[in-house]
Amino acid sequence: MSGKTGKIFIALFSGINVGGNRIVKMVELRALFEDLGFSEVATYVQSGNVVFQSGKGDTATLTSQLEAAFEKKWGFHSRIMVRDADWFERLVEQNPYPEVAEEPTKLHAYVLEREPTAEDEARLSEKCTGPEKFQIKGDVLYLHAPDGLGKSVFAGLIPRTLKVPGTARNWRSVLALLEMAGKVGSGS
């Protein structure tokens, strides 16, 4: 324990380690965060989820700093969504589909760069004709895909229909990251 204090953040990377492309080892990603002066750095699974503590900076500043450092080190751009632990807590509390929270492969949260407009949402609603349901709350899109994300045609339409950059995580990942952030916050 370094004794540093600060706020707990979670960084979500998009487009790394997918289909054998843009490979980034988590141990190297952790090292990047540590080299940037962050403490309590921990990663979760290979898709690029990092819990860390920072004594200074807000989410926008940290996002810019991390995207620049990442691109310099790996030579390609990864869009990064940085949110604080309180934001993640709200995301879980506001889940509109609590009945499927126990089936984490059927529930996904898309962390969006900005809150979609009513027009964005209306465009997406028109495409949602299958078994899926979605709700947007602020800068989060909750997707209930009863057949799983892999079989969902609608899920594939979300990015280009919504036109708001974001990155999706299944509910198991969301809960695991929140739990990790809580452990850092409690000092355990």
TrEMBL record:
Gene3D superfamilies: SP0830-like domains. InterPro entries: DUF1697. It comes from the Bacteria. Pfam families: DUF1697 (PF08002). This is DUF1697 domain-containing protein. It comes from Mesorhizobium shangrilense.
